[in-house]
Each structure stands twice: as structure tokens, then as C-alpha cells.
């Protein structure tokens, strides 16, 4: 079993922003700004929670027979026998199934500069591991 989570620099940035947004929301409530803009305070709080969830509740887990994708705490499972293609990019890792279904995992992203310069990144290694596991799972027994 292999597990990939958000890279440390991304985790630090998302948690910092998340805590900052939550602090601004709390400050807005304490200072009374919430009366003037409760929707804005709710937006700040939601952005803060999203930052924390991205940092701690986003991952890709490869087991013997499936890939488990957690995005912001929500879980999707894809059987390895169904995986036909894996793409990596700025928006994350996308798994494509036989039926055309697409599951995107935000945990492992490939920066645009790495794609432009042809650099091999952690996302490329994850892609290779997922495709290799899918090939093994799809072999006739």
C-alpha cells in the first residue's frame, strides 16, 4: 500500500492561509463587522476550513485492488481494473475509467513550470506507480 498526501510546501501554505482566513472571520465577528457583511464573514470562514481540509484531508492511497482518493475529506474509490489513463497537471492527478468516468485527486499536482521544462516530478512518479499497478491488476490470471 502506498499513500501520497499534499506536498509539505503546499500544506504549509494552505494551513497558513486557512488559519489566516479563520482568524479574519473571527475578528470580523468580534469587531462587529459581521453585521455589515455576514456573507463575507461566512466566505472567510469557508475559505479557512477549505484550506485546512486541503492540507490535512487530501490524499491518494494505492491498495492491492483499488485507488482511494480523498479530496477535502470526501472519499472516492476507483478499482485498478477500471483505470485506463492517468494524467497529472496543475489541477492534480486525474484517473480515467473504462466507462469514461474521471476522478481528480488534488493531493498530487504537477506545477506548470515543471511541465514546460520537461522535469520529472513526484506527480510523474505517482502516475507511473498508478499505471503500473493498474497493468498488474488487469493481467489475466
Describe the fold and architecture.
Strands 1-2-3-4 form a four-stranded antiparallel β-sheet. Strands 5-6-7 form a three-stranded antiparallel β-sheet, with helices on one face. It starts with a strand and ends with a helix. With 141 residues, the protein is of the alpha+beta class. The radius of gyration is 19 Å and the shape is elongated. It has four helices and seven strands, in the order βααββββββαα. The model has no long low-confidence stretch (mean pLDDT 92). Helix content is 46%, strand content 26%. α1 packs antiparallel against α2.
Major sheet, described briefly?
4 strands, antiparallel
Shape: elongated
Strand order of the largest sheet: 1-2-3-4
Question: Helix fraction?
Answer: 40-55%
How many extended strands? 7
Give the SSE string. EHHEEEEEEHH
State Rg: 19 Å
DSSP strand content: 25-35%
Report how far apart the termini are: 21 Å
Give the rounded overall mean pLDDT: 92
Annotation field: number of helices: 4
Label the structural class: alpha+beta
Lay out the secondary structure.
Blueprint (H helix, E strand, L loop, with lengths): L1 E4 L2 H23 L7 H19 L2 E4 L3 E6 L2 E6 L3 E7 L2 E6 L4 E4 L6 H6 L4 H17 L3
Antiparallel strand pairs: 1-2, 2-3, 3-4, 5-6, 6-7
Helix pairs in contact: 1-2
Question: What descriptive keywords fit this protein?
Answer:
single chain, three-stranded antiparallel beta sheet, 26% strand, 141 residues, alpha+beta
Gist?
By secondary structure, the chain is an alpha+beta fold. It contains four helices and seven strands. The model has no long low-confidence stretch (mean pLDDT 92).
Amino acid at each position: 500500500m502506498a499513500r501520497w498526501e499534499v506536498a509539505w510546501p503546499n500544506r504549509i501554505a494552505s494551513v497558513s492561509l486557512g488559519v489566516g482566513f479563520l482568524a479574519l472571520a473571527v475578528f470580523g465577528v468580534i469587531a462587529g463587522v459581521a453585521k455589515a457583511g455576514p456573507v463575507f464573514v461566512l466566505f472567510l470562514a469557508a475559505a479557512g476550513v477549505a484550506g485546512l481540509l486541503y492540507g490535512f484531508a487530501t490524499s491518494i492511497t494505492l491498495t492491492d485492488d483499488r485507488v482511494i482518493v480523498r479530496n477535502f475529506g470526501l472519499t472516492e474509490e476507483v478499482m485498478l481494473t477500471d483505470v485506463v489513463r492517468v494524467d497529472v497537471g496543475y489541477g492534480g492527478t486525474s484517473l480515467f475509467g473504462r466507462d469514461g468516468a474521471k476522478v481528480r485527486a488534488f493531493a498530487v499536482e504537477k506545477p506548470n513550470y515543471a511541465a514546460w521544462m520537461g522535469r520529472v516530478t513526484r506527480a510523474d512518479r505517482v502516475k507511473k506507480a498508478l499505471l503500473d499497478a493498474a497493468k498488474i491488476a488487469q493481467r489475466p490470471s
